[in-house]
Amino acid sequence: MEWNVDEQHSRPPVNPRRRPALTDDRASVTLEPVAQRPAPASVPPAAETVLTFLQSVGRRSEAELYLRLFRQQPKESFAIVAAEVSGARHSLGSLAEQLKYLSELGLFAPVVTGLLDPLGAELSAGRLAERLTSLGLSCSTHEAADPRLAEQLRQELSCEVVPVVVFGVPIGDTAGRFALLGSLRKALGSRKIVFVRERGGLRPREPHGVELSPGHRLLCHHGGISIINLSSDADALQKRSVLDEEDLELFVRVRELLCHEDASHVLVNVTSPLTLLTELFTVRGAGTLVKRGTTIERHGSYGEVDRVRLTTLLESSFRRSLRPEFFDRPPLAVYVEPHYRGAAIVEPCDVGPLLSKFAVDPVAQGEGMGRDLWQAIVREFDTLVWRARPGNPINAFYLTQCDGMVRTATWQVFWRRLGPEHIARVVEELLGRPHDFASV
User: Is 243:205 a contact under the CB 8 Å cutoff?
Assistant: First the structure.
């Protein structure tokens, strides 16, 4: 047998949010995309054009999935867009066009200006309203201090009007403006706040990634840091001076927003005017996703988990039926998200702990749950071996996480923290393991 052995001295770039039903920076093992329900038959021509565009930057099934989810929410709860762009007409024009595309998908969001630059808030609001009107959208302007603001926004959003809210100088300091934004989010029930600014996502001083501690890296792409998990990343990110002054100020304010008890489900995106739709409707995104963090439960046996829900997740992710004897093998650890939107299984193996299964449902992929699962695994298991099918999209992520890899015609075998004298045995063991699904 011919083996192609790759030691990870030079690692290829990878988009850290790209993942199938396994996930890459939120990964999985030989998973395939979960089958999605078809889009409604009566898609308006304008919406079809937007979906076709999104297909050019991601999977159409992803865009349709997010569109269904957004449409299931009350109109006023879709999102709040915080426009931190200057009064430059080209930036506001790009943002207005993206808002126009959202309207063609039946989605409307209030736009707030002046959170970080109250002096330019009125100018930006006026020019944005002018551009929205020229695109055929109905819009209105409001002062953020209006005590009836939330009520007025609900009414206007239900009538498909785009409200522009000015956070001007009279509001007070930056902390006061962000506190008012948090109150508005709570009143509208918004689950997403999108900061749109000319420089895009939060960018580290070093563009090739951020190592917060040994083995704890924040992956980056052209739009900045891909995902920041406040529960595991925030303290180290601030202490290590990873961000410049402008980005650090925004990050600190976002962290304060998400630390409120009623904001555990809220996601914050930071992106550019040109990539707003890409950030909202693709799993890979085009900016920075900031979240509170996912709770990952660790169990020592299958008797401690809901086997029915775990089986459903694995079979829907791999799109195959598990063999009945799969659960007869005792695991070393089973990691599950409490609502069974993601899970990973590590089993004992003669050559070291084996990552047997890694699955994350499509919506949770976009929230970065795969990365949370991966971090939980490698915190406990320094040494790890696993395999994946050639051509599996997750392999690009695995290449950034492994210390070495062997390619064969049927499997790619990966390992972490394993000496070269063990490679032949690891490959032999993993290639000889039986399949866990009824059909392969």
Answer: yes
Place of tokens 């650890």: 333
E runs forming strands in 24-167: 80-84, 111-113, 139-143, 162-166
Q: From the centroid of its chain, how far is CA 113?
A: 25
Task: Please state whether beta strands 111-113 and 80-84 pair in parallel, antiparallel, or not at all (unpaired).
Answer: parallel
**Residue 243's closest CA among 287, 210, 275?**
210
Query: What is the rounded distance in angstroms from the CA atom of residue 286 to the CA atom of residue 396?
Result: 18
265: Cα separation from own chain's centroid: 13
Beta strands in 115-258 (DSSP E): 139-143, 162-166, 192-197, 210-213, 216-218, 220-221, 224-225, 227-229
Q: What whole-number distance in Å separates Cα of residue 390 and Cα of residue 408? A: 8
* CATH code that applies to domain 4-33+295-432: 3.40.630.30
- Six-digit token string for 207: 């563009």
- d(Cα 95, Cα 112) in Å, to the nearest integer? 12
Instruction: For the chain, 440 residues long, give each residue's pLDDT as a single digit of tens.
Output: 444 444 433 333 334 344 333 433 333 333 333 333 344 445 567 677 777 767 666 677 778 878 888 888 899 999 999 998 765 567 888 999 999 999 999 999 999 999 998 988 998 999 999 999 999 999 999 999 999 999 999 999 999 999 999 998 777 789 999 999 999 999 999 999 999 999 999 998 876 677 787 767 787 888 889 889 898 888 888 888 889 999 999 999 999 999 888 888 899 999 999 999 888 888 778 899 999 887 889 999 999 999 999 999 999 988 889 998 999 999 999 999 999 999 999 999 999 999 999 988 877 776 778 878 888 898 899 899 999 988 877 787 788 788 999 999 999 999 998 888 999 999 999 999 999 998 75
Is the full-model pTM beyond 0.70?
yes
Q: How far apart are CA 53 and CA 59, in angstroms?
A: 10
Residue whose tokens read 């989010």: 185
Question: Tokens 């709040």 map to which residue?
Answer: 80
- 4-33+295-432 against 45-291: fold identical: no
CATH topology assigned to domain 45-291: Carbamate kinase (3.40.1160)
Every domain of the chain and the residues it spans = 4-33+295-432, 45-291
Q: 191 is written with which tokens?
A: 């689950």
CA dihedral in degrees (374, 379, 385, 389; nearest 10)? 0
